[in-house]
Amino acid sequence: MVIKEKIEKLRTLMRERKIDAYIVQTSDPHQSEYLADYYKTREFITGFTGSAGVFVITANKAGLWTDSRYFIQAAKELDNSGIDLYKMGVEGYPTYEEFLINEVPEFGRIGFNGLCFSIADYKSLSKKMGNRMLVSNLDYVEKIWEDRPASPNGKVWIYEEKYTGESLKSKLNRLREEMKRKEYDYYFIGAPEDICYLLNIRGNDVDYNPVVLSYMLISDKRAYLCIEEDKIDDDLKEYFKENEIDVQSYDYIFQLLKDIKGQNRIFLDPTRTNVKVFDSINSNVRVSTGINITSWMKAIKNETELENEKKAYLIDCATLVKFFNWVETGTHTGNLTESIASKKLHDLRKENESFIEDSFETIAGYKENAAIVHYSPTKAFSKTLENKGLFLVDSGAHYLEGTTDITRTIALGELSEEEKTDYTLVLKSHMMLAECKFKNKTTGKRLDMIAKYPLWKNGKDFFHGTGHGVGFVLGVHEGPQSISQRSDIEFVEGMTTSIEPGLYIEDSHGIRIESEAYVKKEYENEFGKFLGFELLTYIPIDTRPIRKDLLENWEIEWINNYNKKCEEKLSSYLEGNDLLYLKESCKAI
């Protein structure tokens, strides 16, 4: 079925129920960032394969809203589909809510599938739509998706305490203490990564995310896990029994919520709770909302997690040294493509004994393709690498020891002065934040401004976040902390974050340099407590594209010291030509 046929089938279903507009978000019942194939409804309807976007259809218009990471990609994938691209955050383009106000008459009907629509989005939309009616029980995609993939059914496994550093019982006790302090009778969790963190389990329901789709409801005495029973074996059942976790069927969550008596108070995260779940709660139950308690808990890594994470990064950084040596050797043959390189990186990671899976789809962009922020090559569309220009590789993996997310941009040969200048400015931005000292509880918004200063000073900018939390064998993107112009979350000791400034010149080149770090205490005095970043990532910074005349003395010293540490930490993991490549890459400038 081509896109235009799908759109017409949607419109036929809309006419039957007199629906004026229908919304398809990029979501599942848990508002996950990455989706199982079964829940890729927006991608099915539109053909747009990016990880973020909202599709809206009316009787005579259809539009897709996505952010700056995907403008170039979306324009190509939507070509000749009958779907217009609306660029989020760009002047002149309406938001999808403004579009609905303009296109749907007062008292008109707007439909969507409430199972895959968060309470936060519902309340925001309802407030803006005035007298227009929201109809939340319409799963139109299910009606037209004839060859829909099966719903995820991966097996669950226990993640040992030697990696997590804390038992299930300890975490549950900490959680209940917080519930008691806040006077919550019940706590609902709809985020699979929070559930896996709390229970010390992992699964494989979603590509790149070792989680299992499930719900939890917790009181001071009972803890219910709602999950498809065939995902857990006898050992898991015994594990849950020992830890007093009551296992129920996946859909039983709706009955559990319905059974809560009035005047009890329940806490939930409105961004991770779907409309159908919320509608199951009796109207006289008091509802408190906020960021998941478990999200705050898992954001601060304990000593065991951090030590394991350091091991994971050494394994992965050594693997990337092997990869980049292979890339530079293979480029000379004239037969190496972005797609072949991506597959090779995956294969090299698989050679490590503790490898679980990639933590996201590898971004491997050569020259102008690197300007597409979330570009992923395919066999059909993949550039051949040549002995010139820049090659950007953003990739990561889940190991038993931890999760990695690393970006390096390397020179494959001759570069333009513009490429060298842009590379140096991005590196200056990376160093500015990596070396930053800041007051305890400084917000991500302030850290973002510090990082961007070298670029802003030269009239340049990038439009994605500068950093995100990284999960511990969970989601590679983890909140609540982030470094971006929108983040008011305060940074404290033990949090992890990526540091990933970039610069993207359409039809020319793209640059990003990303390392992960954790927050540590630097010093405390009469002015308060000051924090800084300790890097976890140690793979050489490519010095060949650097314009040394743009660097200050401390920056030259930083680069040389960092690359020296890379050589010291990785040498024991490498041998032969790979070791020689490492030593050459780490030479001082």
Task: Looking at this protein, list some descriptive labels.
single chain, 20% strand, 6-stranded mixed beta sheet, 28 strands, 19 helices, 589 residues, 35% helix, alpha+beta
Please, could you describe this protein's structure?
By secondary structure, the chain is of the alpha+beta class. Helices cover 35% and strands 20% of the residues. It contains 19 helices and 28 strands. The strands form eight sheets. Strands 4-3-2-1-5-6 form a six-stranded mixed sheet, with helices on both faces. A six-stranded mixed sheet has the order 12-11-10-8-13-14. It has a four-stranded antiparallel sheet with strand order 21-28-27-24. Strand 10 and strand 11 form a beta hairpin. Helix 14 crosses helix 15 (338-350). The longest helix has 29 residues, at 303-331. The relative contact order is 0.09. The mean pLDDT is 96.
